[in-house]
Amino acid sequence: NVLLGLKTPDFFLACKRSVYLPGWFLKQTLSPLLSSVNNSVILLPQVAGDEETPGAAQSESPRGEEPINLQLTNAYEYGQALNGARCSGNTAACAALLASTPPERLPHFLSTQLDGNTISFIMQALDSHLLEKDPHLVYQHLHHLHTAHRFSVVLMLLEKDERRHMTQLFEHLSAVQSAEFTKNDVQNLANKYI
């Protein structure tokens, strides 16, 4: 069987790689494939998260994409929102998510989602959207991010392009004139990353 141009086992592997697919899509596309398989599969019901809650903060997407809920209470919800922004390449939504996150909570929220792609995506969002608006917030996020669980392991496994994004962010941050931090502070912080 071929599904979306992938052989069936490859499709399941792709789904395990943090790709979010709604329950209705899985049910419609996988039911014919799973009827011939003896293993049990449990499809989780789709949560009524599409309904807008009055007063809930959401990011506005410039490209007409689904807005991202910014009132997140746990690492799972944060990871889902971050992964949604990353999969769609929406750095503005990631920046809005980071702007609504207290810097000291960031390591906790990223504890289950930390990988090279996520760090690189966060660096791009910080550099392209938040640095100009709030350099102190960028500095605070970077100050706390390196304390996240598994950070040092993920840092060792970064690819050249991901390291380039990181270096570029620290170069731009050190060029900012700020009363909250000095170039020396930025250099000391950069030494923990680069």
TrEMBL record:
A cellular component annotation (GO) from this entry: cytosol
Repeat is among the record's keywords: yes
Keywords: Cytoplasm, Repeat, TPR repeat
All copies of domain RNA-polymerase II-associated protein 3-like C-terminal, residue ranges: 73-163
Name of the protein described by the UniProt record: Sperm-associated antigen 1-like
Organism of this sequence: Notothenia coriiceps (black rockcod)
Keyword Cytoplasm on entry: yes
InterPro entries: CiliaryAsmbly_MitoImport (IPR051982), RPAP3-like_C (IPR025986)
One Pfam family of this chain: RPAP3_C
PANTHER family: RNA (RNA) POLYMERASE II ASSOCIATED PROTEIN HOMOLOG (PTHR45984), SPERM-ASSOCIATED ANTIGEN 1 (PTHR45984:SF3)
Annotated localization: Cytoplasm
Top-level taxon: Eukaryota
